[in-house]
Design goal:
alpha+beta, three-stranded antiparallel beta sheet, globular
Length: 173
């Protein structure tokens, strides 16, 4: 897991992109989330873009970045109150009641961002196929004690099951 200090430039870029979305449509639910979560997603994409040395983010539904080798990367970002532990879960939601929605990405890159946006942890990466093969499907309404999956079905996998970020960085070059 890599810890990163988030600089003002990255926050500015994410806020700018959020402003473009808001201008396009006042119906933020169309994008699957509220304003705060959209900002956090954009911030995670900006951090990932910076780490991979990429010049642009692709605002596609099924992926966020294209590596220099042409791999499609979906960045999954969640906010948190403290540094996550290796047994914490990475989650890919599926809003369909009938099936597991799999995006058309090659890899997932998972990040956690501190609630005050000062730090980020790059948790690791995994191929989308491996994520769904190794992960556990959780039905909407399942209670995990500290939290409950209330909005959607999901597939979850422990952080410890991910590949270290330095490996994806080498393959993206």
């Amino acid at each position: 897991m890599i810890e990163i200090d988030i600089d003002d430039r990255l926050k500015y870029n994410a806020k700018y992109r959020l402003g473009l979305v808001v201008k396009k449509s006042n119906n933020l639910s169309k994008y699957g989330s509220e304003r705060k979560r959209i900002f956090e997603g954009y911030l995670g994409e900006e951090i990932s873009k910076d780490l991979l040395g990429l010049e642009q983010v692709d605002d596609e539904f099924d992926y966020d970045l294209i590596s220099k080798r042409g791999n499609r990367i979906e960045v999954k970002t969640v906010s948190c109150s403290f540094k996550p532990m290796d047994n914490y879960l990475c989650t890919v939601n599926s809003h369909s009641e009938d099936y597991v929605h799999k995006q058309k990405a090659d890899y997932y890159l998972f990040l956690r961002i501190l609630n005050d946006y000062s730090k980020c942890w790059v948790l690791g990466w995994i191929s989308c196929n491996d994520f769904f093969n190794k992960g556990r499907f959780v039905k909407k309404g399942t209670d995990f004690g500290k939290f409950k999956f209330v909005k959607a079905n999901a597939t979850v996998l422990e952080i410890s099951e991910l590949n270290e970020f330095n490996e994806v960085y080498k393959s993206a070059k």
